[in-house]
Amino acid sequence: MKRTLDQVVDALDIETFVLCGDEEEARQIGERLLAELNLPHGDIVFLEFNGCGARLRLRSYLHRPGQGYPWLSPQEES
Amino acid sequence: MKKVLLAALDPVHDNAVKLLNRKLSELGYQTIILPPGVHENEVIERAVQEQPAAILISRTLGYQVAEILGRLVDLAEAAGLREHTLLGVGGMAITRELGAELGFDATFTGELDIEEVVAFIEGKYLAENRQKIRFRHEKPDITGGYTYQFKDPRIEHLLDQITDQILEWVKGKTTPAIERAKIRLAFLEEEGGNFLDSNHKRAGEYLERYLKWCGPQVQAFYREGKLPEGVRRLNAAEVAKLMARLKQTDCDSPRLPPGGGKPLVFVQYGTGCPLMDSIHIKTVEAWGADGVLHFDPSWGAQQEGLLEGWLSHQHDGTILTLENLRLIRSAMQPTTLWNVRGHRGLNTPEVQILAATAGADLLKINIPYGATAGGSDPARLTVDGVYSLRLAAQYGLPFDIPGNDELSGVPPHKTFAGMLVMVMLGLKLGAKPIPKPLLCYSPYMQIEGQMEDNYVDMNTAKLEVWREIVDAPLWPGEPVGFMTHTADRIQSAVTTAAHVALAASLGVDAVTMASSDEAYSKGAISAAARVDTLRAVRDMLRFMGNSRFQATPRAALIQEQLRNEVIAVLEKVAQRGDFVAAIHEGLFGNQQDGLYAGRVGRDTVMIA
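Above: the input entities. Below: the structure tokens describing the complete assembly.
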């Protein structure tokens, strides 16, 4: 396989905690983070703001069901 | 029994060898345990005296671990012990790589697995291939040991009346689905393949007869090669790559309940792609699931006829074709139980045939549920459902009866009344029913405020009332904890695990559980989300062991009320004297409950 990301079966989740003022700010941070990481089909799966910051889970579907899957190919083939 | 020498080559940490000492002694082994702080030469001296079958060493501290253990191996070698004494090592400081490098016969890491240790002592352990130890040997029978005796004669009598009427009503009736099923059966018996295979001499003839009973989309697929929107054919190379990949895997794993036993744990799949499904199935097998349930797309259930070939699409539910089913079955461990649902659509009888042909272990049929909301017309599904139950009996496959109409807002007593009709109907036709009461926080419960204090009382009552009525297996689903999940994966895993633990505590036979993506609706369920909840369930069941949840006295009151309300519904249905009309008139759930009779396949019942 050419890329390590090819070995991800379907989704890549990123969990983190960000300092922010409210839920909306957290959402914007999450969206900017997805864009900066240049991950395809990005989405905020979960967001919970309390007091000083938010717990965030971002998701990118690298390989959706029904597409071709690079992980099916042995390393030397790709 | 064999003699085993146990020693902690560690100044203080000897928990592991003490635990091994107890467990091995209980199994009848003659154990010799040395005190902590013992030196490697003392271990070997004792071994020379005792000549044990195995020496098991534990080491927690990382300091000089390689030097100490290396000396022990050298001394064992020099004393001539290696020819007849096995050398095993484990503990916090030990990795598989270190154990192998130092020359131990086996290295044990992680939580103590006594079966693995015993296999080692008995010479069945292969260090280079740990998977040789099999955790699962056969498929369990969920219905085994149940008599299906009704404990309440009043309920039995009402069900008798209702089901006699159903069986009388379906006599002499048929549907396009039944006609297709007969053609499919005859074709399978004669040729055993698919309609589009040119190697089958009479495939064209069978196909023409089949298409007479199909809808326009299915006809266009076979006649013009036109795929429904969003559907893609998988090619042989993709399938071959999957098979090659799966050949390298062995997902045999210890069961989730500690020490085995109840409940069997099932996981639903239906990513839209049989290749992705296969990988998800391997994942859940590896993390301890006992079985999986196939979910098909709703559009497939709403058209007359089934497609064929390896097909995928990018929506929920995996297309039901014989080739897809066979592919998925071939990916599973032989011991994995497999359920295929087909009870909500226009292809119910044919789905039972394809499922049984592909190797399914369980079927899913519930007429009152399948004939409501987005489901089939009640008359149509009653005729199809009875035919399907006959097929289930003929195949000797149990069928489960999901109670998911509760999710529309139907109160449990109405859902249960419908499920009970299915139990009796199945029994009369020679099939083996498995009721699946839903453990959930349903809309009805939320609106009525019936579960505000806790989730234990209502769910306990919902299971216990079944025990009070009939001696049948119980399999809460589908999945447990419905409407308690959020997109927070930790919360979702916890609530799933709590519901599984409650079900296990109440001695159910099986349980269907969700992934931690249950409440996330903007994308497919991920493989990691499946692992989340299976991992949580394993630890929750370990935490519970044989202890039990204690419901409050309110559970008994709910149970009594439920039973009385179930009887009241059955009385109304029996009095109505027309099962199909009873569904239309909302006796099993009406518009106020959020339910309405299904419309798909209306006016398609024919005189045979």
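Note for the figure: The first strand of chain B starts at residue 3 and ends at 8.
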